[in-house]
Design a protein that fits this description.
The complex is a heterodimer of chains A (467) and B (379).
Chain A (H helix, E strand, L loop, with lengths): L1 E5 L9 E7 L6 E2 L4 E6 L4 E5 L4 E6 L5 E5 L3 E6 L21 H10 L8 H5 L19 E5 H15 L3 E5 L15 H5 L4 E3 L4 H13 L3 E5 L10 H9 L1 H4 L9 E5 L15 H5 L5 E3 L4 H13 L4 E5 L7 E5 L12 E4 L4 E5 L3 H14 L4 E5 L2 E3 L3 H11 L2 E5 L7 H12 L9 E4 L9 H7 L3 H11 L3
Parallel strand pairs in A: 10-11, 10-12, 12-13, 13-15, 14-15, 18-19, 18-21, 21-22
Antiparallel strand pairs in A: 1-8, 2-4, 2-7, 3-6, 4-5, 6-8, 9-16, 14-20, 17-19
Chain B lengths: L1 H10 L18 H13 L3 H8 L7 H26 L14 H8 L8 E4 L4 H6 L4 H8 L23 E4 L5 H16 L5 E6 L6 H12 L4 E7 L2 E2 L2 E2 H4 L16 E5 L3 H16 L5 E6 L17 H10 L2 H11 L4 H24 L18
Parallel strand pairs in B: 1-2, 1-3, 3-4, 4-8, 7-8
Antiparallel strand pairs in B: 5-6
Helix pairs in contact in B: 1-2, 4-5, 4-13, 4-14, 5-11, 7-14, 8-9
The chains are: A alpha/beta (467), B alpha/beta (379).
Chain lengths: 467, 379
């Protein structure tokens, strides 16, 4: 019986990939451990190994095919027991890309598609793009750029302009970044400025902070902010407080950056959103962008800042493509929120990955006649209170959407601001849509239950609108 | 076989350029020969040997007088700080450096002030005075006045002078070691020839981040001298009750950092050890770890009654090992007159009295200072 070889998921977030190269051809005998193909994900090129013995029967997806969904049957192996006399004929022409949906369908039928998870709902493919930022002059040429590339471009541009800037972290140089955010930096800037560290967050966060105190401009990458807990002492006690404790004499211009929040099925220790923790500390700047333009413009601003910045990225949006203005030096102001969807009936305040969910929910709500305004905070400290209050004064109803725990959160802070300074404008209690108040579970169904989604956002909006 | 190779390794000169030769017998086995070569090249004990061969710095009378004066300044300054604390003029924590003066003076006299970086923990007054920072602004910081070096917002534990390249003044035990490695990283990055001296105590030497910093400092050959001021007690815990390896100079071995065991109660021994260490570090060989055996006469902080040690122990150190007394005896032996020494003592008393007056009479920071210096930029 033929064994179906399916497009493998090579990372927790991989949904599709490119079949870069076949290393076997029809009729080849293979055994367990042989490399069959090279598959490119958005992060890396991976080798695809055989786990069964047999003869390659069919090659169903030609090399060079992009966008092959995980679970798609890409080849078959006939085992020794099969009739060797009639191998499937080699395809006379490489299968066209158009066949991919069909094979995907086949995979779905065989039950091989990746189980839906909570994080699938976090990055809806259908989410509308945010409205173009008012900071971008009309008529500016735009280029489709992934968030990952935008972050890299921001670092590269700043590094070209200022020799004091260096990038340090685990796997940032030779490996090109654990999430490929620093791709290409080593080649351009060399090992003096792109520095691989051992796995010692506390130590290299301290080295970074010390280098900043001594006059350099470090960009410290944490593979994820979960690991930055090992280093939080230096972020808070060394970086955030020194300027104040020294009466303004000793600065610490440093950027701590990396992915934050839930990824996909990685369990409780790799899924925490720390925004509220850092945003509670005077002396820090905390930035959490959603789209690629904000990621670029705000990372450039963060690197130029004289203050220590915690720059919270999100692994699930690294691969998403957005328009980025094609200008020489696109820098955005720190501390300014952005209206990503203007509306009149209700305000949704959110940031980072929550923006996509809010946009998706708003689209649904529009069909029901509810016109939601979405405020993307972008900077969490200092918080753009005025933008929140101005939108509240306009809509009189407000929901906060945050992919993170509800207690002592950014949502809590926004609600406090509305109570203290926006009470007269409120026509309904402010609601928050946050993750469930439990450590994030691994099981796909439980993860889905724990994480926010567009439906929960829409439900909360209807509630504050009394609909 | 490894053992037979060691003595010859230990005898190899300080210079790391001396290439190790694997014994012929080991050549057949590549793993053994490379590990032997490694051992020899490491020369872990070479700096200690160089120090042992020539223990004391050959100071001129003038230099020794300067060291004496600096040590007396620290002693009198700290005594005055203790007094002001007792009067309620200094609050919070106040950690005095009395007894340890020879360490900061001996080491920092070998540095280029304003070029080489110095960083330490919260027992920081002495290191600042040894780097030529004005006693007035230090004392005014202790009393929490607007004229203090941190505008009264740092206090005893948090003082900095970027002009002198004194980088604090850190309250989290061990944090200054990683930060110091960062300062050293900066010297190497800019290739400015500077060295960082990072001081920490025998207590901080047990913090995990110290070893993270040592690993990277050695891996990247950062120009840093790790200085462990072993005063015998981590707050109230005697070294032997808190440290499995009480010979702290050995603590760098796992990172291939040569260690030096130095008598921290003799300013000339300290200075000579600094010469050896600095030559090694400035040549681009990477870090050195120095353990300075010293003693603090006072408690850990002003609020510590120091019941964990005997009165006799403290008295013995004061009577028989005091670095200032020893320097004074040596000066007299060299023929420096009693009057000359008295004149220095008098001048220092005057300086310290003035700093106390300044610290008492300066106004507290303006209330508006509460909100300044949180961030540098406006957003």
């Amino acid at each position: 019986m033929a064994i179906e070889l399916k497009m493998p998921a090579l990372s927790p977030t991989m949904e599709e990939g490119t079949l870069a190269k076949w290393l076997v051809k029809v009729g080849d005998e293979v055994k367990s451990g042989d490399i069959l193909a090279e598959i490119e994900t958005d992060k890396a090129t991976m080798e695809f190994e055989a786990v069964d013995e047999g003869i390659i029967g069919d090659i169903l997806i030609a090399e060079g095919t992009e966008g092959v969904k995980v679970g798609t049957v890409i080849a078959t192996i006939t085992s020794d027991d099969d009739d060797k006399a009639s191998p499937a004929p080699a395809p006379t022409a490489p299968p066209a890309k158009a066949e991919a949906p069909a094979t995907e369908q086949k995979a779905a039928e065989s039950g091989a598609v990746k189980a839906p998870t909570g994080t699938d709902a976090l990055v809806p493919a259908s989410a509308p793009a945010p409205a173009a930022s008012t900071e971008i002059p009309e008529g500016t040429a735009m280029v489709g750029t992934t968030v990952r590339e935008a972050l890299r471009d921001a670092m590269a541009e700043e590094m070209r302009a200022d020799d004091r800037i260096f990038v340090m972290g685990e796997e940032v140089a030779e490996y090109q970044g654990a999430y490929k955010v620093t791709q290409g930096l080593l080649a351009e800037f060399g090992p003096r400025r792109v520095i691989d560290t051992p796995i010692t967050e506390y130590g290299f966060a301290g080295i970074g902070a010390g280098a900043a105190m001594g006059g350099l401009r470090p960009v410290i990458e944490f593979m994820t902010f979960n690991f930055a807990l090992q280093a939080i002492d230096h972020i808070i006690n060394s970086a955030a407080k020194t300027n104040y404790m020294s009466g303004g004499q000793m600065r610490c211009p440093i950027v701590f950056r990396g992915p934050n929040g839930a990824a996909s099925r990685v369990g409780a220790q790799h899924s925490h959103n720390y925004a509220g923790w850092y945003a509670s500390v005077p002396g820090l700047i905390v930035i959490a962008p959603y789209d690629a333009a904000d990621a670029k413009g705000l990372l450039k601003a963060a690197i130029r800042s004289e203050d220590p910045v915690v720059f919270l990225e999100n692994e699930l949006v690294y691969g998403k493509t957005f328009d980025v203005p094609q200008t020489d030096d696109f820098v955005l102001p720190i501390g300014k929120a952005r209206i990503v969807r203007p509306g009149t009936d209700v305000t949704i305040v959110t940031y980072s990955i929550g923006v996509g969910l809010a946009l998706e929910a708003a689209q649904k709500l529009a069909d029901e006649g509810i016109d939601a305004e979405i405020v993307d905070l972008r900077t969490l400290r200092p918080l753009d209170k005025q933008a929140v209050l101005a939108s509240l004064a306009k809509t009189n109803r407000l929901v906060v959407v945050e992919e993170g725990f509800p207690v002592c959160s950014i949502a809590s802070e926004i609600i406090t601001i509305c109570m203290e300074e926006g009470f007269d404008h409120l026509d309904a209690p402010v609601l928050r849509v946050c993750n469930e108040d439990v450590p994030l579970p691994y099981a796909a169904n439980l993860e889905k239950l724990a994480l926010i989604d567009a439906k929960r956002v829409a439900d909360a909006v209807r509630k504050v609108c009394y609909r | 076989m490894a053992r037979s190779a060691r003595p010859s390794a230990a005898k190899s000169p300080v210079k790391t350029t001396a290439r190790a030769k694997a014994p012929a017998a080991a050549v057949d086995d590549p793993t053994i020969s490379s590990s032997l070569a490694d051992e020899a090249a490491f020369a872990l004990r070479s700096l200690q040997q160089a120090h042992a061969n020539n223990k004391r710095y050959d100071a001129s009378d003038e230099e020794l007088l300067t060291f004496y004066e600096q040590m007396v300044l620290i002693r009198r300054f700290e005594e005055k700080a203790g007094q002001l604390y007792g009067l309620g003029l200094i609050g919070g924590f106040c950690h005095l450096y009395i007894g340890q003066e020879a360490v900061a003076v001996g080491l920092q006299s070998a540095l280029k002030e304003g070029h080489d970086s110095v960083i330490t923990g919260y027992r920081d007054h002495g290191h600042m005075l040894a780097y030529g920072i004005d006693p007035n602004v230090i004392m005014a910081e202790l009393t929490g006045r607007g004229a203090g070096i941190s505008h009264g917002k740092g206090g005893s534990m948090h003082m900095f002078s970027t002009e002198h390249k004194f980088f604090g003044g850190h309250g989290i035990v061990g944090a200054q070691v990683s930060l110091g490695a960062g300062l050293a990283f900066g010297h190497k990055y800019r290739d400015d020839g500077g060295v960082c001296m990072a001081y920490f105590g025998d207590g901080a030497a047990n913090q995990g981040q110290v070893y993270e910093a040592m690993n990277m400092a050695s891996l990247w050959k950062l120009p840093i001298i790790f200085v462990i001021e072993n005063n015998g007690y981590a707050m109230g815990t005697a070294v032997k009750r808190g440290s499995a390896e009480t010979h702290f100079y050995r603590r760098g071995t796992g990172f291939r950092i040569p260690g030096m065991d130095v008598n921290g109660m003799d300013v000339l021994e300290v200075r000579q050890a600094a010469e050896v260490a600095l030559e090694y570090v400035r040549a681009g060989n990477g870090p050195v770890l120095m353990e300075l055996k010293t003693y603090r006469y006072r408690g850990h902080s002003m609020s510590d009654p120091a019941k964990y040690r005997t009165r006799e122990e403290v008295q013995d150190m004061r009577d028989n090992h005091d670095p200032i007394e020893a320097a004074k005896v040596e000066l007299l032996k060299r023929g420096v007159t009693e009057d000359k020494i008295k004149e220095i003592d008098k001048r220092i008393r005057q300086t310290v009295a003035e700093s106390a007056d300044f610290a008492e009479s300066s106004p507290e920071p303006d209330a508006a200072e509460l909100y300044t210096d949180v961030l540098v930029g406006t957003y």
